[in-house]
Amino acid sequence: MSKDExxxxxLVSTWMSASQNGDTxxxxxxxxxxxxxxxxxxxxxGLQEFADASDAMRNTRMRGKSEIVELQLLGGWAFxxxxxxxxxxxxxxxxxxxxxxxxxxxxKDPDGKWRLVRDANLVTx
Length: 125
Prior knowledge:
The protein has 125 residues and is of the alpha+beta class. The chain has one domain (3-121): Nuclear Transport Factor 2, Chain: A (Roll), CATH 3.10.450.50. It is 26% helix and 45% strand. It is built from 3 helices and 5 strands, in the order ααβαββββ. It has helices spanning 3-20, 24-28, 47-56; strands at residues 31-38, 61-74, 77-89, 96-108, 114-121. It has a 5-stranded mixed β-sheet with strand order 1-5-4-3-2, with helices on one face. The mean pLDDT is 96.
C-alpha cells in the first residue's frame, strides 16, 4: 500500500473518530477551503455551511463506521467510495439510524496533505 493510500485511509479514519468525538475543528482541518458538498434535496454547499451544520449538531451523539469500498489514486487527486452507517442521537431524543454510500474526491495540496474537495453523500434514514 502506497504512502498516499495510507494517508487517505488515515484521513477517513480521522474524520469518523473526530465526528464521533464532536471535534469539529479536526474535521474542518481535513477539508479544502473550496470544498463542495452535495446531499439529496438541497443545493450544493461549501465549507461555512458545513461548519454551521456541524456546530448545530454539537450536542447530538454520533456513532458509526465507514468502510472504504473503493479507493483510486490519480496523481495529486483521488476518489474514495465509502459505505457509511451512523446512529445519531439528539439530546433527549431517540436514535436515528442512517446508512448509505458517499463518493469523495480528494486533492493533495502543496503542503503534502490530502484534503476533501468534493463530497456526494447519499446516506439516508
